[in-house]
Amino acid sequence: MRDRAAGFFRLLDWPGFLTVLALITYGVVMVQSATHGTRLAALGDRQLLYGSLAAVVLLAALAVSYEVWIDYSAFLYGLVVLTLLAMPLIGHSVAGSRSWLSLGPAGLQPSEMAKVFAALACAGYIKDMAARSLERRDVAILFAIAALPMALTAAQPDFGTATTFLPLFGAILYLSGAPLGRIVKWAGLAAVGVAVLFALGWFTFFKPYQKDRILTFLDPSIDPKGAGYQVVQARIAVGSGQVTGKGLRSGTQNRLNFLPAPHTDFIFGVVAEETGFLGSALLLSLYLGLLLRLAGTLELAKDPEGRFLVAAAFFTLLYHILINVGMVIGLLPTTGIPLPFLSYGGSALLAMTLFAALGINVRMRRFSV
Amino acid sequence: MSLQERRDLPAKALFLKALVWVLFSVLLGRLFYLQVMRGDFYRVLSENNYTRSIVLRSPRGMIVDRKGAVLCRNRVSFSLVLDSARRGDVVTTLEGMRRDLGLTMTRDQLRAAQLRSPVQSLAVVARDVPASWVQRVEARQAEMPHLTIEMELRREYPYGPLLGHSLGYVGLISPEESEAMRIPITDPFLEVGKSGVEKSSNAVLMGRNGRRTAQVNSLGREIDDPTLRLPGVGIQEEPLPGRSLSLTLDVELQKLLETAFGDETGCALFMDPATGEILAWVSIPEFDPNLFCGNVSPAAWKALAEDPRHPLLNRPIQGAYPPGSSFKPFVALVGLEEGKLSTSTVFGCGGAWEFGGNVFHCWAKGGHGSVDLLTAIQNSCNVFFYKAGNEVGIDRLAKWGVRFGLGRPTGVDLPAEGSGILPSPEWKAARKLGPWYPGETLPVSIGQGYLTVTPMQLLSFYATLATGGVRVKPHLAAAPPEVLQRTDVSASTLAVVKEGLWRVVNGGGTGKACRIEGLDVCAKTGTAQVVKASAGKDTRLLDKAIRDHAWFAGFAPRGDPKVAFVVLVEHGGHGGDIAAKIARIGLEYLFYGKEPVGAQTVPGATPPGELPPDGDAPSEAPTPSPADQARLGAGGGHRAG
Fold it and tell me: Are residues B335 and B203 located together in one domain of the fold?
């Protein structure tokens, strides 16, 4: 037992592991600060519980080889898809979408876990292909594996979370072995496609509040007390943090309720306000370190399925960070995408921890035994 | 293509690393811009977010009378304020107001109210709302997020209409007042005195508002969180309360006099001649100043402004009346001082005097025969004073008029004082009315013609007689006496005039109704003609509206005068009747502490047929009628009295 533990710690990718641990800690501290003195103060303690749980999950997910995880992927994927299918019957409605599963005192968002298990399922499919070369049909099947839970999530309806499956498609394309030039070309085509869909959507199925978000992102002064309020107040929170910040629990934008959803979607606003440019740059550096470590792992992974897992983790984390931070600092429109490890919520924290852990896991076990 | 292919993996990894670096550089660059380059700007915005400047209202000073009775105090009042700068749609709040408070306000009305307010986003929705609304608005904060209840202190005048003209009232400061008084409008409820001593003593009564920076949350609610210390929160400026003001008025005397007027209109002033302290300031009809410090309805305001009896007119200083016979002692004084008259001067009165082709009548149709100066004052002989005035001349009358403060405000500490008219050839020329005719001096000599005075001016004249020629500034706010002018009238002249005035009351003259045993009252009656139509007729037979104004002015006691007074009863007929009786009530109270028994109201003029033998009946004086002879009551024409 002692030897096994010693072996694990020798194997452990300390930089990756510590970075994730630091991010989880940062998240617990910021959620506590964001909810301190408000009626949501209990959420701070709950996040401490989730953070501890995430640390345990991190260790556990690293202790077991990713290959073992892949072995269980079909079961996990099947379980989560069935749960998603059953959500209209057993789910709890929060803010108009049936996305919560009640588990005694705690709740779980199956859609968050679905991202990880879909990635594992794709890895499993890739593993089963063995040495066979990737056909167009295989790409279609991989797409379908990711698209099924995505569609079920969108049907809850929870479009914001549904878009977080998109990085999986990026990972699949990346893995498909296409040369860099072709990927760039596809990305261009995808951008045009998105633009066309966007234009169609604007005149057909976009809801008024969604249009408002886009309009006020373009010009928050249109309605500074209505739809533009969040955008303006988030920007004030970030800017007023200045270099060193107002200090933990002393962010006025946060404490006095000017910042919307300070413990969830806008937690980066609290980071920027209370810890200033130094604190937010430190947080971004931790993300940057983790992403670079994952990018470096891409060329080290010993097998295609491992490489896919790393790519899935990389793209998913990058997507969340960009969309969320970009929203808070006024570079992107408002969306309900949580900030990995920082936003309050157990499901998202566990999902992100698992993603990061799988990526690090692949790096730890890059040498064929 | 095999997934085992590893050839381009380093290039792809490098591409992703470069992509991450680029994207994070954008994020960090943006953060650097917002937090480091623009940090100061956003810091100010965040401070503006959580701070509200709160006005600390300073109470206005109380007003008390000379015995300490409270004439004006403050009461707590709640007002409804809408702040559109708060989060949320104003329309929701307007709907909530309509539903929960029954208040309708359109967006246009809101905008108009905001324009009137010193702070752009604030609008006063309603003042003096019931106290129960405080909790109602608090409880509905979610539905009406822009509404707050503000507490203010509003004026309350416990004596109501009794003191309307002297106390005046307050109102919201206007932009013009703000500029003139150099008081910045920091508060939508900032009030200043609009009339009365509230206005003239505004600098004493009004304090200075303080300012406090409060900490609020995004709903605009003030919070006090000890775990959150914020810069710039706290008291910036302590409020400075206004000082209280003592008036020289005696509210009991005021009450007696007002009651004595009954249904009559007019005014009465009582004053300490030595100090200028005004003991009573009666102007009837009164108005209730509380009307202006509550929610005065447009209808109530209109009724007050359009009342034909002009309740808003402050008669003692804003009414200009011909003084009638009460002016005769002045003519006598000037004649004596200028050596044109003496106690041995005798003029014959045949009931009328023809001068320059016109006939000037005396009120006694049969005439007074040969009369000397004292008898002429005592019986108010017109012909004597026509002749005396003719001897003295208009220039000397005007010269002495200036010394006694006629034709200009007396300087009493109430706003909007009128001047009356002290006619002279210069005055007539300046008004482009042509040259002065000697015949125009005659009606002036009996207090008619171009001459008008305010009751305050006439009181000032009699008070100056009482003090032996020293003209003191009249005042309502307690203050040390201030000598305006030493008229340098000789003691012998004063003795003669006083003797004449004593005889009016005590020698069986026109003012005998005011004779009080043991108190040597010196006074003169006066009857001022209202319209020419009444000339030569028994005033008590005429319609009330065209009856003459009745004057009674004087001082008491003769030896060491303690009080000077003037009573004017509009359309009161003969001055010896009702006006003298009102003055008597005041004097009896002041000197004997006596309040009239039974009916406190002086009955109207005595019935016809009982004309007193020495009545002041007017007669015709056919001189041209000045257009502005009197601002109130008097029509054209004039008549001796």
Answer: no
Smallest CA-to-CA distance from B446 within B385, B534, B491 is with: B385
Q: Are residues B228 and B337 in the same domain?
A: no
Lowest mean pLDDT among A50-64, A248-262, B53-67: A248-262
Residues of chain B short of pLDDT 50, as ranges, are: 1, 532-537, 539, 598-599, 605-641
What are the chain B neighbours of A331 within 8 Å (beta carbons)? 26-27, 30
Residue B128 half-sphere exposure toward CB, CA atoms < 13 A = 12
Which structure tokens are listed for B541? 């037979």
- How far lies B213's CA from each of B58, B87, B115, in Å? 16, 19, 24
Whether B263 maps to a domain, the answer reads: no
Q: For residue B609, which of B540, B536, B516 has the smallest C-alpha distance?
A: B540
Asked whether the beta carbons of residue B34 and residue A322 sit closer than 8 angstroms, the reply is no
B24/A314 Cβ within 8 A:
no
Query: Which comes out higher in pLDDT, residue A38 or B146?
Result: B146
**Would the CB atoms of A298 and B50 count as touching at under 8 Å?**
no
Assigned domain for B495 exists? yes
Residue A236 has pLDDT above 50, yes or no: yes
CB-CB contact of A127 with A303 (8 Å): yes
Tell me the whole-structure pTM to 2 decimals. Answer: 0.73
Mutate to test the interface with B, among A38, A225, A240 (most CBs of B within 10 A): A240
CATH number at residue B56: 3.90.1310
Tens of pLDDT, residues A67-99: 999 999 999 999 999 999 988 888 777 766 777
CA distances from residue B352 to B344, B360, B365 in whole angstroms, order as listed = 22, 5, 8
Comparing CA positions, the residue from B523, B516, B422 lying closest to residue B466 is B523
Task: Residue B117: give the domain boundaries.
Answer: 52-61+77-153+171-246
Residue B105 forms part of a structural domain: yes
Q: What is the CATH number of the domain that holds B454?
A: 3.40.710.10
Q: Is B602 a domain residue?
A: yes
Amino acid at B343: T
Mutate: best of A236, A249, A266, partner B, most B CBs <10 A: A236
Provide the ipTM.
Answer: 0.93
| Burial letters B93-116, b for 16+ CB under 10 A, else e | bbebbeebbebebeeeebeebbee
Whether B196 and B170 have beta carbons less than 8 Å apart is answered as no
What is the DSSP-derived secondary structure letter of residue B440? Answer: G
Categorize the per-residue pLDDT at A106 as very low, low, confident or very high, splitting at 50, 70 and 90.
Answer: low
Q: Among B218, B246, B274, where does a domain finish? A: B246
Domain boundary among B211, B246, B281: B246
What is the pLDDT, as a whole number, of residue A101? 77
Residues B539 and B400 occupy one common structural domain = yes
